[in-house]
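Good morning C.,

I know you're traveling, so I'll keep this short. The sequence:
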Amino acid sequence: MTEGPQCQSCSAPTELYLCGRCVQELRAQLRSLAHGPEVNGRETAGLLEDLADVVLKMTKLGDGGGHRKKGDEMPIPYLPDVGKMVKDRKTGEETGEAVLSPQGRASQLLDQARNTLTTQVRDLCEHRGVDVMRAFRVVPADMVGPLMPGWRRVADWAPTMPEMADWLALHVHAIACDESAGVWRGEIDSLTRSIRRVIDRPVRYELLGLCITQLDGGKTCDTALRAPEDAIEVRCPKCRTVRRCDTVRAQGQSDARRAYITWGQVLETNRLQPDGWRVDERKLRDWRAAGVIKVHRYQGPDGSETIHRHGPDDKPLYRWGDVEQLRSQKRLARGERKRTRAGR
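The tokens, ready to paste straight into the viewer:
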């Protein structure tokens, strides 16, 4: 018994060069290049238009945030086309090769998308003896006479990339009947995945806290646990214990409130606070100068902690819990003033 034809993409049994599932996925990917999801009954921009916005620097991909002190240069809101230069790990010298920024990578992908879509449209039309303008229902602007419904007159016409993606999605079964269907399916799949990686920001990882699992001998694991911001659970890389992210985060915040930290760690902890809970650094420095934020201990050059200061090299240690208490008191006082004014 001989085996039937197989899909060139997933090796599933099929009568064409692509199976029904791969045809549906290919149609969806081609549609996503030209059109986005519907919002309030209207279609949004597709991947190609979003990619063009990145190339034209209409989409902000640079970090551009963080605290700036007086005299610092303003951060660049948009990344350049070329990022950092590649350095040799041994010598530390630049090799002359540049790592492309998202804008540079988007420009390359836009050229790749134009070449891929143009080649597929031209091959489908040539193999069937169909003129490209006739396939897209376009006639020259100087043509005389009435046109059939759906046709149009255009001068110096060339199909846009969204038009080609729409046309290919409409004739996706013609692709499935072509001997190069598997190659074209792989090219479109790779193209859409690459575009999504450029236009979608990666999920940021955050430090949740330390693993509190008790190991053999009564010792605590104390491994730093990191997870994406939208993760629900996190697995310890050392003891392999799975815990909920909100539980680890709450435990880490509780430990941080009681721990003695330096002033630099106070500023860093403040920067990691979510929006709406971050205290202005100038206000923090004013609280420190006024002695509102108390010094609990001192850290010597050897890392030892003492209650009293023994030398000029000893660093004062603070508690983040004091900052949170001051922050809540200031917010409460501000809320009481607002209610008083409203009562008047």
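Safe travels,
E.
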